[in-house]
TrEMBL record:
This is Cytochrome c553. GO terms for molecular function: electron transfer activity; heme binding; metal ion binding. Signal peptide: none annotated. Keywords: Electron transport, Heme, Iron, Metal-binding, Transport. PROSITE patterns: CYTC. It comes from Bradyrhizobium lablabi. The lineage of its organism: Bacteria, Pseudomonadati, Pseudomonadota, Alphaproteobacteria, Hyphomicrobiales.
Length: 195
């Protein structure tokens, strides 16, 4: 019985394909088709539509892949990104990560942090050692994200989410954010945004 039903539904799919109706299944879509939906929020030219949406153009490929995987697993919770990532297979995520990592990082035109703010941020970096992982000039590498030039609003939000563990996909980053003095968070966001 189930075999019969199976062949029936295959017949329907084959017929739809012959008549060229319905949507192209995900596996048959080109990378441009797969990433079309992303532009609605992350921006058609890499500049996110909303300031609390992160830049994904030019972000490290390993990191982009891990975030998509974590959204799909539910380790990183977000009402918008979880359903989007759930529809992606591992190979789609790797291809999408590679695709966006090769785009140029957009310039949001954020001002450099004033001297006093920058000094506070650099002090926090000295005590917590952010650049030990995020590397010189906060460019990141592999699974470590670039932070330089990310929007101040998103940085503020996500650092706060690490602290409250609302963003729970990397407990190590949460511990580090909790070890950072709360007064240093605003200077860090402003400093990183202005790099
Ligand atoms: C409806 C809006 C929307 C759409 C469409 C969307 N995103 Fe997102 N995306 C967001 C928001 C908002 C966040 C930040 C979530 C948070 O604060 O935790 C995000 C976060 C991400 C992150 C994490 C980046 C980081 O710096 O941590 C990745 C990767 C990502 N999106 C990739 C994609 C890809 C790939 C697509 C298309 C397949 C896509 N998004 C479509 C809104 C969207
Ligand atoms: C031990 C290594 C390590 C150190 C030290 C570290 N980070 Fe991170 N950070 C990471 C990793 C790994 C991630 C990616 C987490 C994930 O997979 O979601 C990350 C993610 C982040 C993000 C999220 C970026 C995004 O696009 O969502 C921010 C913001 C951040 N770190 C800020 C900092 C700051 C500020 C410091 C210093 C006060 C710091 N980190 C120190 C390893 C580190």
């Amino acid at each position: 019985m189930s075999g019969r039903l199976g062949s029936c539904s295959f017949g329907a799919v084959a017929l739809a394909a012959l008549l060229n109706v319905g949507v192209t299944p995900l596996y048959a879509q080109s990378i441009e088709e797969k990433t079309q939906v992303c532009a609605g929020c992350h921006g058609a030219s890499g500049k996110p539509v909303d300031k609390t949406t992160p830049i994904i153009w030019g972000q490290q490929a390993g990191y982009l892949y891990i975030e998509l995987r974590d959204f799909k697993r539910g380790d990183r919770k977000n009402d918008i990104m979880q359903p989007i990532a759930s529809s992606l297979e591992r190979q789609d995520m790797l291809d999408i990560a590679d695709y966006f990592s090769k785009k140029p990082w957009p310039d949001l035109g954020q001002p450099r942090a004033p001297k006093e703010m920058a000094e506070k941020a650099l002090n926090a970096n000295r005590s917590v050692g952010c650049t030990g992982c995020h590397l010189d000039h906060f460019q990141g590498d592999g699974t470590i994200p670039r932070l330089a030039g990310m929007s101040k609003e998103y940085l503020t939000k996500t650092m706060d989410d690490f602290r409250t563990r609302a963003r729970g996909n990397n407990p190590g980053m949460s511990d580090l954010m909790l070890a950072t003095s709360p007064e240093d968070l605003a200077p860090l966001a402003e400093y990183l945004a202005g790099l």
